[in-house]
Amino acid sequence: MSQTIAILTGASRGLGAALARELLAPGTHLVTLARHPDDDLAAQAAARGASLEQIAVDLSDAEAAAGVAERIFAALPREAGRYLLINNAGTVNPVANAAALDDAAAIGAAFALNVTSVMLLTSRFLAATQGLAAKRQIVNISSGAGRNPNAGWAVYCSTKAALDMYTRVVNAEHRAHGVQAVSLAPGVVDTGMQETIRSSSPESFPALARFQEMKASGKLSSPEDVARRILALTARDDFGQTEIDDIRNYA
After folding, report:
1. Residue limits of the Ketoreductase domain (predicted)?
2. Residue 195 resides in a domain
């Protein structure tokens, strides 16, 4: 039996892909959720003798998210020493001035991915691990955008603010029963999301020049470094004591 069972969303690109590779370790059974399976990750798992299960799912489809959450946690082994859920999947789109946010489908898909899927997976995680004598950890990948407004990011800022508050509610309900939940901002990471941000128009996203300058001057963190720091944080004895946190607080 694996010592750790880790469930990771958004595992095929960027920070999620880096987290997945860091989690390929002896004693860990990794379950990844992404739109497409990662053949390179599967090859690395085989080479390392690591335990990996990849599930293809579009988490912006709330019905699909609910179905996969039920399936994963109905089959969850109950003998592990640690259960780790990392809700990493997310989108910055749609990027637009609030006066131009009129695409209901795009707004709904963003909320479904950034918030609803987190709630569905977390609900099943909590129910499936309730009463176990094991460490139960939840990491919700949030953003400084949920704590500070950015023009053009009404949807992204709102969803990440919702994620922060949801984490606080989970702790209010479940911390006394041993659950450790953290809403964690990863800083500005050099991922595909940053490419999307830099392709925005200055009319839709007035801070565009600042993000372009950060890339040009090498100020973006690498996904690999941030992934290592996030997993190191989950191993600390004080993990969970700061429920709204930022990985940049840890050297």
Report:
1. 4-196
2. no
User: How many separate domains does the chain show?
Assistant: 1
Q: How far apart are CA 162 and CA 142, in angstroms?
A: 9
Give residue 93's domain range.
4-189+222-249
What Å distances lie between residue 44 and 4, 28, 194, CA to CA? 18, 14, 26
Supply the residues annotated as catalytic.
Answer: 156
Judge whether 239 lies within some domain: yes
DSSP codes of every residue in 37-81: --HHHHHHHHHHT-EEEEEE--TTSHHHHHHHHHHHHHT--S--S
The two tokens of residue 161 are: 């603010």
Mean pLDDT calculated for residue range 165-184:
98
The CATH number of the domain holding residue 107 is: 3.40.50.720
pLDDT tens readout for residues 39-58: 999 999 999 999 999 999 99
DSSP helix/strand/coil, 220: coil
pLDDT confidence of 198, banded at 50, 70, 90? confident
Q: What is the pTM of this model?
A: 0.92
